[in-house]
Amino acid sequence: MRRARGLTLDDVARRCSPPTTAQTIGRLEMGTRTVSVGWLNRIAGALGVDAQDLVAAGEVAELKVAAILGAGGAHAPKKNAIVVAHRAEDGQIGLVVGSSVGDYRAGDELWCDTLQPEDFARALNRDVLVPRPAGRFVCGRLINRDAERLQVLPLETGGRQQVISNPPWIAVASKLVRAL
Length: 180
Hints:
By secondary structure, this protein is α+β, with helices and mostly antiparallel strands. It has 3 helices and 10 strands, in the order αααββββββββββ. Strands 1-2-7-6-10-5-4 form a 7-stranded mixed barrel.
């Protein structure tokens, strides 16, 4: 959970009430120090989650973030990032909204199902992420497809339609996770 939020051990330690040390958080995280209910509550408060979210209760997975979405479009993250997903399916990837665009707000997480070319029709009229060369992406609404090309409308108003030839895969948004 700490890594999914992009926090260091020191960040979590300082956010605890009362504050503690990064070494203590590290020991608790690695299991070399026993975690009490009190510690769970302190750390959960520092991370902005419920204590039960910190306790493995079944299958919990991490989705690799493929792109960051912002006003200038979608781009590859500068460093590895993950989003925490419960019961992730094979082939799912994450998309994090870095700044508000279209219907999405900064901080939103989109869980996306990757599709192979033969399944692209399943994504018509839905928001998709399409890979481009050199770690670039196009993100928008898939409005048309033919044997060789996809037509994608941008999420922001006033943007120009993009035509992408023969992408190896696309990812269709299947779940929006928004903090309230």
